[in-house]
Amino acid sequence: MANNPKPHHLLLLLLLLLSFSNLSLSSISPPSDGPPSVYELLPKFGLPSGLLPDSVKSYSLAEDGSFVVELQKNCYIQFDYLVYYEKKITGMLKYGSISNLRGIQVQRFFLWFDVDEIKVDLPPSDSIYFQVGFINKKLDVDQFKTVHSCSKKVLVPGGRLWNRGVELPIPVDDIKMLMTE
Fold first, then answer.
1. Cα 102 from Cα 164, distance rounded (Å)
2. Residues 6+ apart with CB under 8 A from 178
3. CA spacing 20 to 30 A to 105: which of 40, 91, 92, 153?
4. Which residues form the signal peptide (predicted)?
5. CB neighbour list of residue 68: distance below 8 Å, 6 or more residues apart
6. Domains of the chain and any CATH numbers
């Protein structure tokens, strides 16, 4: 003779299944449609997401840590210093640092210097370090926590627009030469 479950047992089993499925469905995050964005990837390496502008078109990261980031266009961002981003940025990503960096420059005293390396303290602190040649500059990490919009032109003090290139004066034939002995 077949064992027929009682109707209240079926109802109880159904309620348990429904409540379990609701709990498990709410705790499962939706599947990702691909790799994380570069802004999600940087914090996984202990770096702030605002190191790059909001105009990243694509990026690739090899198993050895070498990366290429493609921006939509060259741009500027004003942090404590004016930073210039080339359209293509390359380097070596490791936990807490980016080395062999190419494609990011910083302005100091009207001169542009390549940023060679970026590091953070481990364990994390309020500081981030930028290696420019033999100079190591410590800055407050808070200014790099949010992703900034980039600009092709820069507003300098006084409200004037300024391009990265230096414009030389147009030669004039009627200017007299200064002779020195």
1. 17
2. none
3. 40
4. 1-26
5. 59, 60, 88, 89, 90
6. 34-144 (2.30.240)
- Other CB atoms within a 10 A radius of the CB of residue 119 amount to 19
* pLDDT of 53 over the 60 cut: yes
Hey, what are 26's tokens? 């709410």
Residue 112: CB partners within 8 Å, gap ≥ 6?
84, 105, 106, 164
Tell me the HSE value of 89 on the side-chain side, using a 13 A CA sphere: 29
Amino acid making up residue 120 = V
Q: Which residues contact 75 (CB under 8 A, 6 or more apart)?
A: 53, 55, 84, 85, 150, 151, 152
Prediction pTM value = 0.67
Using only C-alpha atoms, the chain has a radius of gyration, in whole angstroms, of 27
- Tell me what the pLDDT averaged over the chain comes to: 78
Nearest by Cα to 100 from 80, 82, 85, 114: 114
CB atoms within 10 A of CB 49: 17
Count how many residues are written for the chain.
181
Where b means 16+ CB within 10 Å and e means fewer, 135-170 reads eeeeeebeebeebbebeeebeeeeeeeeeeeeeeee
